[in-house]
Amino acid sequence: MKRRDFLKASLGGGAALLGTGTAEARGNLEPAEDAIGMLYDSTLCIGCKACVSKCKEVNGMPPTSLGEETAWDAARDLSAETLNVIKVYSEGAGKLKDAVKDGYTFEKRSCMHCVDPGCVSVCPVTAMRRDPKTGIVTHHPDACIGCRTCMVGCPYNVPQFDYDNPFGEIHKCQMCNQAGVERIDQGEMTGCAEVCPTGATLFGSRKALMEEAKRRMTLKPGEIYNYPRGDVRNPESHHEKAVPEYQQHIWGEKEAGGTNVLHISSIPFDKLGMPPLEERSYASISETVQHTLYSYMALPAIALAGLTYVVRRNTDDEGGDDS
Amino acid sequence: MAAHDFDFSAVEKRLGVSRRTFLKFCTGVAASLGLSNNAAMAMAQAVADPKRRPPVIWLHGQECTGPSEALLRSEQPSLEHLILDLISLDYHQTLDTGAGHQVEEIKKRVMAENKGKYLLVVEGAIPTANDGIFCKIGGETMVDITNEAAEHAAAIVAFGSCASWGGVQSAAPNPTGAVGAPQLLAGKTVVTIPGCPPNPANFIGTVLYFVTYGKLPPIDEKGRPKWAYGRLIHENCYRRPHFDAGRFAKEFGDEGHRKGWCLYKLGCKGPETYNNCPSLEFNNVGGGVWPIGIGHPCFGCSEGGVGFNKPLFSLADVKTHTPPNMFPGIDEREDTTGISAGAAAIAGAAVGLAVGATAMASKKLEGKESDGE
Amino acid sequence: MSAYQPLKRPLVTLPFLVLTVIALIGTYYLAQRFIHGMGIVTNLNGGYAWGVWVVYDVVVGTALACGGYALAITVYVMNKGKYHPLMRTALLASLLGYGLGGVGAMIDMGRYWQFYNIFTPWHMNFNSVMLEVGLCVATYILVLCIEFAPTLLERFGAKGLVKALNKVLFIFIALGVLLPTMHQSSLGSMLIAMGWKVHPLWQSLHLQPLLAILTALTMGFAVVVFEASFSSVGFRRPSETPLLAGLGKGIVGLIAAYLLFRFGEILINGKFGLIFAGDLGSLMFLLETALFVFPLLVLSSAKYRGQGSLLLWASVSMLFAGSLYRFNAFLITYDPGAGYSYFPSTPEIMVTAGMVALEIMIFLIVVKKFPVLHDAKHA
Q1: Which residues sit opposite A88 in a β-bridge?
Q2: What strand order describes the sheet that includes A201-205?
Q3: pLDDT per residue as tens digits for the range C250-285
Q4: Which of A103, A128, A309, C304 has a C-alpha 20 to 30 A away from that of C79?
Q5: What is the rounded CA–CA span in Å between residue A21 and residue C190?
């Protein structure tokens, strides 16, 4: 009899689940209308690391040393003191630029500024935010409790916690627009795009960059193309270069809802360390499940009502306890 | 033979330099070749011995005589003495006082008398189109002259970019079909000393090496002596730190240009040109006077396919890094600590403890139950 | 009415002293963590942001502390009053387990001095599973305190207060069932957002909350059996096997349901081949499944589950199974990408060991000083 009550309550809950489930399901977020971003073309990158050095300068971060003997910045990967790093893909002899076999190419690692950012979705205290206008994924240490869910929730392992500092914080690229820097707000471009000598890191609106990336996909290998440098919408200068054999893949167009930082290359992206992502963002699945269960707290409220009723009956029998 | 038992008085007399100056010169050349002091001594002795002077046949093709001019203007003490006295320059179309059939005869005689012993220096490109009619000397085409001289040469040196890979003549559309000596003399070893003009020190060092050891110095696949052309200009460039820090001059006369920043964005070909300009500077002029030193991007004059071929201000293909040199691989990470034996032992012990305690408790439970029954 | 009595035994015993030493070592390393930062004590890195502190103390620890939750469902929802004697022990263990979880979360929190942001509405992100877990766990610890309060009050003879509390206790009991249901399932939901980094055999996306709650419940029941068995041995009290065997019967359904959903998801999504891939993931999966199947076999037989020792083995197997399920998903087969690796450092493990030691010590103190254990004569 009492079990029946419990089941009834459960069924009620189930109904609520079904009822709200469809209403709350959410797909991927859409790119912000005027989202800004960057386009990284690995075939243009010459590995000068000017972007790495400028990034450290803008963000006031020290060079990463490999030990006493290295006097130069030798960051191996993203870390609390490296928000942008140039890595190398090298296969076999590693001599031919942009060749998959026996070739090499450079690859940039920095925040991709997801359109549907995992870090923003999982952060319990809204310390990660997606700027509604620029689409920049920003971090706010004032709110952050250091739970590092953003690190596990980021498909690219971008946010990095400063473990070596007892009062450490999360560090990530904020497209040079964090408080105190605000390059974007002041009409400037990101530091890395500004110093890039070849336009391998190109700044601009996501739309314009996507257009440029798509144009490059259509170019014939070997023909001369006038590559812009700086801001794609208003290039500081151009330079001519023979078009490489691009992979017909713009990373960031669709992956997990897309990113504002786009990558193109002549090497397949799985070889460049990009994660195996599908079009649907994990954030959207997670939020769909969560909102289905907790929509307006209806389900928990119904469950609590049912439980209270049942428990009350079962404890009332005899002054509260031993029945 | 050590230095102290060698009599330098004859050298001092013959070359008109002091023993000290002479030895200094030889040591300097040996050092730039990456050789030891012993080698310098061997070199000094070789130079001092008039019998070891090799006869030299020096040919000119399509060119401006720049390499010869550079050689003559070099400021090493008494260099012209040395170059003229350490070798026996028997035929040189520009420097010879004689002319016409007279010198041509001398050339033929020297070549015949010194079969397999003379040194052939080629200066200038060789036109091959229309049977080579674009360059004739004494009624013979440069193609024939070169082939003839090369046949019995002990060694062949192509001096200057034109002789090394064709130079400016070979730039598109190349109406004369100009090629360098190595292309014409395919199958023969040709040492190339490219540059427009080339650094005389690179020539002297190579010839001295030949005179001393009777063989050519180690060369790369393009015939360039490795000691002079083993590194990119970019690698030893003193503006390199600016490149690494992303500080580029964007146009001539801008702030970065005035401050001496990297000229890569202005089209500097240093990153794809192999030469020792940053250390020897241009033509031994000194005082920081070489293209990059005076604020002009390197033109890549010594590099085939770059100088006279690529647009002046187009970006260079950076060849500095043969990855993975100093670049983290895609899968490299900061601070990933491996498993420590101690930690593994503790973790194992924790599981073991739980299982062990369960085993003990279960035994006791069994005992209890059998007692109860 | 007190059917519960403090255990009249000496407090300081040899095991107690050993635990003290472990706790002190843990405290030492904990001090290091707060002085020099987490880097000096832990092996955490850019790819493995969560180590043994989060995964054991919070994810596994709170599941191990589900005894109170499981028993509350049995006693108050299913109305099986005969299990009531086990209630206080289970509640105490839950309170301590969740306390450990809370403290563990706190020491692992990189910016712990701002922890209160999680309670300030203007900071809350209602999309975040972590928020839900944090709030629920915090509230549940409070609820557990209230549920356990009568035990303490009895000891101090505050009869009036106990009576008043008993009048409203049913609300807290109901909450005590609801809250763990919410956050234990959410611990599973947390894996959804971790996406591709979670091994496909453990990444069941929409099923995560269900699998998490089912394993939490099995672990809850298992821990009740485990505790009762151990206290009957350790404190030389009469065996409660018949009572526990009844619980064992209920567990069968839970494990069966869990295995059904688990394998169903794997089959439907075409991941069956991964089970026999022979790599770490497949080995761990097979081990984990074996640990689930063993208790299933033992407990479905009335004869076997009637034997105290087998029952204990079944419960331990279940605890290992549930723990391994969580360890596997969050840590062992979790792969943030090539180049990253993680195994806890010695100090890191010692901090966790120290906290577990402390938990057991408090448990021992409380059962010896307060009326927690059911008086055998009243049973």
Answers
A1: A106, B329
A2: A201-205, A36-41, A261-264
A3: 889 999 999 999 999 999 999 999 999 999 999 999
A4: C304
A5: 19
- Of these ranges, B147-151, B202-206, B359-363, C241-245, the one predicted with the greatest mean pLDDT is B147-151
pTM exceeds 0.80, yes or no: yes
Q: Chain C contacts of A307, Cβ < 8 Å? A: 77, 174, 177-178
Smallest Cα–Cα separation from C44: which of B277, A292, A261, A79? A79
**Chain B residues 353-372 with CB within 8 Å of chain C:** 354-355, 357-358, 360-366, 368-369, 372
Helix (H/G/I), strand (E/B), else coil: B285: coil
Would the CB atoms of C47 and A291 count as touching at under 8 Å?
no
Q: Compute the distance between CA of residue C258 and CA of residue C221 in angstroms, rounded to an integer.
A: 14
Q: For chain B, list the contacting chains (3+ Cβ pairs, <8 Å).
A: A, C
- From CA B131, how far away is CA B153, in angstroms rounded? 24
B271 within 8 A of B292, measured Cβ to Cβ? no
SS3 A190: coil
For B14, the token pair is 């013959």
The tens digit of pLDDT for each residue in A11-66 reads: 444 444 444 444 457 889 999 999 999 999 999 999 888 899 899 999 999 888 77
Written as six digits, the tokens of B350 are 């924790």
Please state the φ and ψ torsions of residue B154, each to the nearest 5 degrees. Answer: -70, -35
Number of CB atoms found within 10 A of residue C301's CB: 13
Residues in chain C, overall count: 379
Read off φ and ψ for residue B268, nearest 5 degrees: -60, 130
Dihedral sign computed on CA atoms, order C233, C239, C244, C248: positive
Q: How far apart are CA A195 and CA B232, in angstroms?
A: 23
Long-range pairs for C7-15: beta carbons < 8 A, 24 or more residues apart:
C7/C235, C7/C367, C7/C368, C7/C372, C7/C373, C8/C368, C9/C235, C9/C368, C11/C364, C11/C365, C11/C368, C11/C369
pLDDT band at A323 (very low <50, low <70, confident <90, very high): very low
Q: Which residues pair with B179 in a beta bridge?
A: B126
Write out chain C residues lying below 8 Å of B343, CB-based.
343-346, 348-349
Rounded to whole angstroms, the Cα distance separating B273 from B290 reads 14
Identity at A54, one-letter amino acid code: K
